[in-house]
Amino acid sequence: MFSYFQAIFTGFIQGVTELFPVSSLGHAVLMPAWVGGSWAAFAKTDKYFLITIALHLASAIALLLIFWRRWFDLLLAFFRGLSRKEYSAPGFKVICLVIVGIIPVALIGKFFGDYFQTLFGKPIASACFLTLNGLILITAERMSGSHRQYGNPDIAIAERISLRQALVVGVGQSASLFAGISRLGITMSFGLLRGLSRSIASDFAFLLAFPVIFGASLLKLPKLANADLHGMIGPILVGCLVSFIGTYLAVKFLVRWFKTNTLYPFAIYCLLVGVISVLRFGVFN
To answer: Which domain holds residue 112?
Structure first.
């Protein structure tokens, strides 16, 4: 069974870590494994995987609530560009970049989703990927050069990222299907390497995150609806509410954080938790 305590705890961790560059899926796997007992056993079932999908949908709704005006302005610019044939307009190009960026992860998730699901629930795999995620963040910070200052994030993204590079970002973002690799971390790392400031790189990452999280959640919802979740509906709804609140607060925090701070604290956290988990579930298991 999925208790209310587990729902609140899982929802909080999901909400907070979804947009932090530390992998929410990795935490969804490692957290029950560290606690152990019946929770660890339940975390290896398909029902737990489907519950995490519901929590992701709550995070996507929080993202939409925060960035709805940004999406409205971008979509307005996109359709204006189509009608006027102004294909070089920044807003038009940003939407094109987002579309190209989500195609690889959508296709890979569609055709290889079952394979990634078999890895879900294996703590040692998540521990290894979380460690790798920390190394990626450190590498991106060390290799990123000086950042040109932009007032408008659309202009910055349109100037610094091409359609081909957005495709590369999308392929890299597909690595987040491995529990332990952060979607935001991969996208931000690429943005930093392309000369974007952390603030604008995170802005691009948030834009790419919403359609992927929302679309993947919607595709899995029929399975959740058809699953035997007798006695779990209440905890799932509570978990979704907590996930929504956690995501909302996390994004508000991160928008301020990346204006003046780096990825290093998140990288160190991933390395510490990842290595300790590798020792716990691999070497000393």
So the answer is: 4-283
Host H or E run for residue 91: helix 90-119
pLDDT, tens only, 139-178: 998 888 666 666 788 888 888 888 888 888 888 788 777 8
> Residue 85: what pLDDT?
85
Tokens describing residue 105: 């992860």
Full-model pTM: 0.86
Give me the number of domains the chain comprises. 1
Indicate the burial class of 69 (C-beta count within 10 angstroms; 0-12, 13-18, 19 or more): exposed
Compute the distance between CA of residue 157 and CA of residue 199 in angstroms, rounded to an integer. Answer: 11
One DSSP character per residue, 182-227 reads -HHHHHHHHHHHTT--HHHHHHHHHHHHHHHHHHHHHHHHHHHHHS
